[in-house]
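in:
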């Protein structure tokens, strides 16, 4: 392993731009080494990183306990603390996800398409790493491991900037990951964690054009809007997870209740959590469905027709239909059929994940075809909006835009392509 030559300024004293520049220069050199490694070697290094994470569990959990204590003292919400919390099972899941990424097929080198021109020139379009990826994220320490694993698997270098609320957890996870990766021959500088919590470092990353090739923000609306507004580097992002579930008139009542409860309450603080429930006016068990949600501890804010179903419903404001609660709060509206549901989703969805529950196959197909979200579901909980559940091992985020990648972004979404042209002496007339 070749040691990088850039001089890293002190985290406390450095100008943020100088700090990010030094990290990015090291990352660029490390990425070239990483991309030249055989795919099998990168996979083996990730398995060592997963093992190092498991071995470091006591240290990581102790660090996480510090973050949780600080978060409670700062008054973080229950949903935010849930995002932050690691226990033995969750940490084991993080390590398992790293190992799962190692076992995934590597898309790098894949021939996307090929052709031969009449003059004998042969063209191939092949997948290659993007280069240096900057990941800016909040709350969830598992992102440190997921992002590192996904980037390394396809030969990208990663520069990680986690939120202050998870600083101890992130540093512990990063240290364990790097220990395993280095043991597998990966340059330590291929996965770097910004050592300063100075917010100006985020701005320096966003303007590091030519040093960082893509920024991936994972966090709340304020973070993502800032990144999208200030970035001079391409951004792969989504804003809110304003996920809808529409209970059609032909939905099985037991299935509808099970899916609605799971979609809202399994974990309220994730972006795949349902935030709005639409109930068809012709669905026969509307009152029972609303009651089940409230009885399970969910605050229901509804339109007038929903309020008529249960006296415990709180009147919804116009802002509720555009709010990502990330809490045990749900907006509920009664709608007059599929067209009304589609119109509501078109007005208020963030294009993340929307679902329909129905036994009518024709209605389901219309919904799947006409809802223009990154993920559209039939008879399933929106909580499945997760790269691991899609068989991707892990994800670096869920993209709601329409360019480059959409939905859960994993290995393929972290590649670009280049053209290779092979000739036999052709010159252009």
């Amino acid at each position: 392993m070749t040691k990088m030559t850039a001089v890293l300024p002190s985290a406390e004293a450095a100008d943020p731009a100088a700090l990010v520049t030094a990290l990015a220069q090291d990352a660029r050199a490390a990425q070239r080494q990483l991309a030249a490694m055989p795919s099998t070697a990168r996979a083996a290094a990730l398995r060592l990183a997963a093992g190092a994470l498991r071995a470091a569990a006591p240290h990581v959990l102790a660090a996480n306990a510090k973050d949780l204590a600080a978060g409670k003292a700062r008054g973080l919400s229950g949903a935010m603390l849930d995002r932050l919390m690691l226990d033995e099972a969750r940490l084991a899941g993080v390590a398992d996800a790293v190992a799962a990424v190692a076992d995934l097929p590597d898309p790098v080198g894949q021939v996307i398409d090929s052709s031969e021109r009449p003059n004998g020139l042969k063209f191939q379009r092949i997948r290659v790493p993007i280069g240096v990826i900057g990941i800016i994220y909040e709350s969830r320490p598992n992102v440190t491991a997921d992002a590192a694993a996904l980037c390394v698997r396809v030969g990208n270098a990663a520069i990680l900037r986690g939120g202050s609320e998870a600083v101890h957890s992130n540093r512990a996870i990063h240290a364990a990951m790097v220990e395993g990766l280095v043991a597998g021959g990966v340059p330590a500088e291929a996965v770097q964690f910004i050592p300063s919590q100075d917010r100006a470092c985020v701005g320096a990353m966003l303007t590091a054009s030519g040093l960082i090739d893509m920024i991936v923000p994972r966090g709340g609306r304020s973070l993502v809007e800032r990144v999208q507004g200030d970035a001079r580097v391409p951004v792969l992002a989504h804003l809110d997870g304003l996920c809808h579930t529409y209970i059609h008139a032909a939905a099985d009542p037991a299935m509808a209740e099970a899916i609605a409860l799971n979609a809202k309450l399994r974990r309220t603080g994730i972006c795949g959590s349902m935030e709005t429930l639409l109930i068809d006016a012709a669905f026969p068990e509307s009152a029972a469905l609303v009651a089940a949600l409230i009885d399970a501890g969910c605050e229901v804010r509804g339109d007038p027709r929903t309020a008529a179903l249960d006296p415990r419903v709180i009147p919804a404001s116009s802002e509720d239909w555009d709010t990502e609660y990330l809490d045990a709060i749900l907006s509920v509206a009664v709608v007059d059929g599929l067209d009304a549901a589609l119109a509501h989703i078109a007005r208020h969805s963030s294009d993340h994940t929307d679902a329909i529950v129905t036994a009518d196959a024709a209605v389901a197909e219309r919904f799947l075809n006409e809802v223009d979200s990154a993920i559209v579901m039939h008879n399933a909980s929106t909580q499945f909006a997760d790269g691991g559940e899609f068989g991707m091992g892990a994800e670096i985020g869920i993209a709601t835009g329409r360019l480059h990648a959409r939905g859960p972004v994993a290995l393929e979404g972290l590649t670009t392509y280049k053209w290779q042209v092979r000739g036999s002496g052709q010159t252009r007339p």
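note: The two ends are 47 Å apart (CA to CA).
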